[in-house]
Amino acid sequence: MILGGGLTGLSAAYHLRGPRFMLVEREGEVGGHARSRREDGHTFDVTGHWLHLRDDRSRALLAALFDEGGESGGGDQRSALPKSWVEVERKTKIHSHGATLEYPFQANLHGLPLEVVQECLLGLVEAREAAARGERWATAPSNFEEYARARFGRGIARHFFVPYNTKLWGMHPNRLAPQWVQRFVPEPDPAQIIAGAIGLRQTGLGYNARFIYPRAGGIDALPRALGRALEARASAGEGELRTSCAVEAIDPVGRRVKLEGEPDWIRYQSLISTIPLPELIARMESVPAAVREAAAALRWVRWRYLDLATATPVPADWHWTYVPETRVPFFRVGVYSNAVAAMAPPGAGSLYVELSDRQAAPDMAGIARALVDIGALAAVEDIRFSRTRDIEYAYVVFDEDHGPATATIFDWLARVGVRSCGRYGAWIYNSMEDSMLSGLAAAQWAVGEDEDAAATEAVARREAGRS
Question: In DSSP terms, which residues pair with 267 in a beta bridge?
């Protein structure tokens, strides 16, 4: 029994060989957050979903799903790409203090006001001196703000990491643990930071310097291909794929699941859950009080963003940009159609705008003016339409309760034979590839290949920044 038809659940069912599977998905289609919407020739994902592949098994999966021949793919992909996919070199910017900077901020200070550059470089020197003296905050940072100060100095932390992450998380970064960021935050050395401050561009830094994407537009090509493969296996009697089917209750002791609208319980041999961890615990019977208390301590970030269509091309050439300044009502803007032209009609644009305020109705006039200021629009009149979107589960919050709470929950789930995995099942921060590898590990676990499952899961968690 597999709960949830996002990339992790789909991958688990796809890789499962031997036992018959039943995969249930609450929504009317599979994909989870890796879905796409289409309107009047414009295509929108659930904000940026650019695929990065590092593992040979992931590349083999893509080749098997899109087996129509390929062409050479360079960069991190290191293998032939299916013809229906394209590889793109990242173009990313940062808008700060009225300047447009190269990404990442910490390695490309040139263009900022000189007093800001001076503050940033002085802070870098101070952080290095503090580390040499063995000061605790510089050698063993206890929160995300201290991590940024220790690695890059107080100036870079003050002008980018603190304001940007406060907008993104809706809380000050001194409330976030530092461990999860190590994979996702580029850490240039002092020579690179100094070089970027005097105008020597520092490019190619970070895990996502190149990405791949469906040539025809829409990341949903990936979950749809997985879904088609599962439907073919279901037709052959190997399993069942149910959509518009929610889980009502789970009895882990009796190894059975109750689905909404179904009169009877369904017995299972193994249970793989990819639904958000708090929802899994809420649906389970006979849960110890300590586990319920741990689940109540879990925190997450809700998301509000815009799908934005323009009637004219976007004047900027970047794929996405970061906006740390608190006066601007959004923190990140992406242009799908700059990465893949098929995401918008000819001569038009498709964008996503991630908003700082998750409660109030968007101030479209103010948002449009700010988009013009950063070069995402030539004029406010260029907006063809916008749609406000909300995501209940966007980012897991890595606060002081995260580690103890998840340890308590996963220890109990292991004892009752439940595998909770994927971004929201494992309650981590990861990529699409990590999610698919987590599904592969779950399939190995379900058939008793514990050593293979442990190795696969270790890769996925290590890549996701979790020990």
Answer: 256
